[in-house]
Amino acid sequence: MPKEKLTKRVVDALKPPKPSKVGVKVRETLAWDRELRGFGVQVMPSGLKSFVIQYRNAEGRTRRSVLGRYGLMTVEEARKIAHEKLVAVSKGIDPAAEPSRDAEALTVADICDWYLQEAEAGRILGKRRRPIKASTLAMDRSRIERHIKPLIGGRRVTTLTLGDIEGMQADIARGRTAKPRSGSRGGAVSGGEGVASRTVSTLHSLLEHGTRLGTISRNPSRGVRKLAVAPRERRLSAAEIRRLGQVMRTALEHGEHPTGLAAVRLLLLTGFRRQEGLGLERAWIDADSRCVRFPDTKSGAQVRVIGQAALDLLLDQPVRASSRYVFPADWGDGHFTAVAGTLGRLCTEAKLDGVTPHVLRHTFASVAGDLGFSELTIAALLGHAARGVTQRYVHIDEAVRMAADRVSAEVNRLLDERDTGRTNKTLDGSTRDRVAV
């Protein structure tokens, strides 16, 4: 981008980078100052803006150093620091080689901030030796800001003990950091054993990265005992699917969002994760092969087979010329995001408790199990990470295509079937007395 003097107006106007092609990952964009050579602003895909300097050290290697985050630091403050450091470079001093602060004084909050900054810049590798995904970082940031920092953020890493960490876990489980939703935006902060256990996992992971990369000398969370969390068992029964379908048929007449209704139905017909369904782009749909070719998922790039009922639903969605998404947002160029709200209203009307978008995925898998399909086939339908050579190729097997078709057809039938209120057909074709739920 053309160089100009960096000012607050210029930095505010900088936009996060976007991929030029479908499936192409972007790291960051850089805007350089016209007056002070080597001083610039780094803009991450998440929208985070940080001041940086770039220079060649005494060995002739190009180095880049982050000065601080925009918002916590003004442009003029950053310019002054950049000038001092670049002057030091001219004297043969490498700013990146200088310890930013005494490792003994690092607090938990400091190491959390270091982790988020390094991970967002793509300098920390996660699973499969690849940069940590933005969705994972968003969850990590939430746990850090809502639980870790309020409870132990001020503690020095060198004095942190297993007792401190397990005490934090107990506090989260008891709801000490829970907060109700405030205002019209932003969700409530929940506690509970599941949140507590996952927060400890996040803390252990970032401390392990800090130890491996030499930022801290040891990981004080090694050996921590995480709370055992019971697996989620909630699924929709056949009767509940019928009831949800009945509500969906009348919801549009009562003002429910048609995109939200279609998204809920797709998650039930495919078992897609919420973001896989909402972020689905038309270019990824292969109608001839009856599959979706995801350039990236939680488990990497995948070809996911879908049933005919799901494909028909996708192809029936209205096309907006200005959007690449199957489920576009009402405003802007993003995708629809409010499926949880739509599902919540539907379930309130249908008197169904404890239903989340993940429950729809679990329901799809459970229907597949009820129809007699193997765990290997169900794992392929859901896009679980392959654990062996055979599983890496099962997604293209004709048996998986047949399974996807049968499961989506069965769910579609239940959604469209009217509940007589007397008996329910089971998935194997027999009948049983209706059980009140």
Automatic annotation (TrEMBL):
InterPro entries: DNA_brk_join_enz (IPR011010), Integrase-like_cat_sf (IPR013762), Integrase_catalytic (IPR002104), Integrase_DNA-bd_sf (IPR038488), Integrase_DNA_bind_dom (IPR025166), Integrase_recombinase_N (IPR010998), Phage_Integrase (IPR050808)
Compositionally biased intervals (Gly residues): 184-194
CDD domains reported for this sequence: INT_Rci_Hp1_C (cd00796)
Ranges of residues in domain Tyr recombinase: 231-406
One Pfam family this sequence matches: Arm-DNA-bind_3
Keyword Hydrolase: no
Protein keywords: DNA integration, DNA recombination, DNA-binding
GO molecular function, one term: DNA binding
PROSITE patterns: TYR_RECOMBINASE
Keyword match DNA-binding: yes
Ranges where the record places region Disordered: 175-195
Family per similarity comment: Belongs to the 'phage' integrase family.
Protein name per its UniProtKB record: Site-specific integrase
